[in-house]
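User: Here's a chain of 312 residues. Predict its fold as tokens.
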Amino acid sequence: MSQSRFAPFTPNDFTYKTVSQTPLQATVLVPKRIIEGGKSAKKCPVLVHFHGGALVVGDRMFEDWFAIWLLRFAEEQGAIIVTPDYRLMPEANGSEILDDVEDFWKWVHGGLAGCVKGLDLGVEVDLGRIAVCGESAGGYLSILSAMLFPFAKMRVVICQYGAVDYAHSVSVKHLERKAPMEEKTVDEYIASLKPGAVRVSDPFPGSAPLMMGVLREGKKLELLGKDERLFITKVLEKAGSVQVPPIWFVHGREDDMVLLENTVDFHKRLRELYPDTPALLSIKDGGHGFDVDMTGEEEWIREGCEFVRKFW
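Assistant: Prediction complete.
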């Protein structure tokens, strides 16, 4: 059995809120190298990670989607990683997911420092040095966090093939061959839900048919809801005086889940509206999640990490 990619870290779980008696947790990953490096307290930057899964599936510690290069970069920077769960659709709608994200950020600034100090590992968090990252739906939540919750004070965003425009960005062309299912499966799932049901963790591929069904049957926008805060391009255009932090966009040319053209268009619009906001666009060969097993030696990853390091 191969070693877990989280092996260089010491994990600890904390509850940042409770919904209908269901705890929503965040895992704090502390690099072992800084714990073992000495007894004097070390103040560490923070890397917040939002997991992907189309807002339908996923888990804060599902390592198959957590890029190796990103974990190694955090370890090299001596950063503490904080990766939260959030409510999933269709049990929750988009507004409720945003509520979770906002409450998580409030916990980061109100409770994280005390939780880390209580671990007695000789480390502290530097809440003045926060970066946020995420893959797919996690990239979407990362950018929304930066634009909707300025109190979170993140310095830089890493968006890996994020669905920056849910009205147009999800491709359904190849989904049927990936996860065949009956047309009524999603409706039947929704009809079977008990009132007040909460689901915060559903590791892939167990619920792949549900996720693919939501996308293929065009139910994503219906489940997401009409809250204008959920549509990043609209938020960007209304942001006004909000200072958008630097963003590194990563996307694969052959992505058949989240369309590359939407990331390109969003990057262009960002440059037009916020010409002073640094933005790096890395387009490489590969499909959705193409970078998860890359280790960081690749030149484009080194370039991107240097971009992040400058602002973090």
